[in-house]
Amino acid sequence: MVKLTTAIASKNLMKKQTNILITGCASGMGLHAAQTLQARGYRVFATVRQSADVNKLHHFGLESLRLDLNDSASIQTSVAEILERTGGKLDALFNNAGYGQPGAIEDLSRELIRQQFETNVFGLMELTNIVLPIMRKQGYGRIINNSSLLGLVAMPYRGAYNASKFALEGLTDTLRQELYGSGIKVSLIEPGPIASKFRASAHAAYVGAINADQSVHGKAYKKMAAYYSQNQGHGLLMQSPAAVTRKLIHALESKRPKTRYYVGLPTYLLALAKQILPTRLLDSLLCKL
Description:
By secondary structure, the chain is of the alpha/beta class. The chain has a single domain (2-288), classed as 3-Layer(aba) Sandwich (Rossmann fold). It is built from 11 helices and 7 strands. Strands 3-2-1-4-5-6-7 form a 7-stranded parallel beta sheet, with helices on both faces. Strand 2 (43-48), helix 3 and strand 3 form a beta-alpha-beta unit. Helix 2 (28-39) packs across helix 9 (241-253) and helix 5 (110-138) packs parallel to helix 6.
């Protein structure tokens, strides 16, 4: 009888979990997740940084708002608008928005690293902290943070991004522990290479910030720039955004969502390599990759 009651309560909980806020929906993983979940019956609030993208998502039939993680007022206004539309309820948050700032650590200014953390860490946590009291009051909720393979292992010339994702992993693990017993479940998704505009955005960030001709890393930068220009959505090990959405659905709908979801063979392999290889050997492998 107890098991039956628990199963019914869990089933009813999942029925209630229809309102989800997703950040970074202009393209790629965020857009695919928003469209898929809406087709699945969720009420999706697909947020984007640019007003022009709000109009684009409206054209796609999505309920969209502008939310800039670098702007506290934008975060607060968006959440307030969503709560007004839902009667004060929000069942799930998918923190997907983020970008990568390439560059050797010695070539990155304090301001560049700060900007990376403002979007990938500080804005994300501010949004999460605004949502948490709502979920606590409800007694349930799901928070899913989109991390990266580079939140598990570090790679050269991605120091700012590595650091932001390592920070996100630590904050998410701590949050999960602090929410133990609250009814709010917290998960991480850790994708490897995904076909999206991420590399194009990273290349633009590199071009706008790094002077390769004046850097001791100039030769490596040329190789990196060639990779970004030639590999914008293709590759043997590259996954489609659908691979992330599948993990997201499990994190949203499972009675016992996983704490971590690996996406793609590179994530599985390098996570295993980190566990079994000596650090120096792993460093050598990652430098060659």
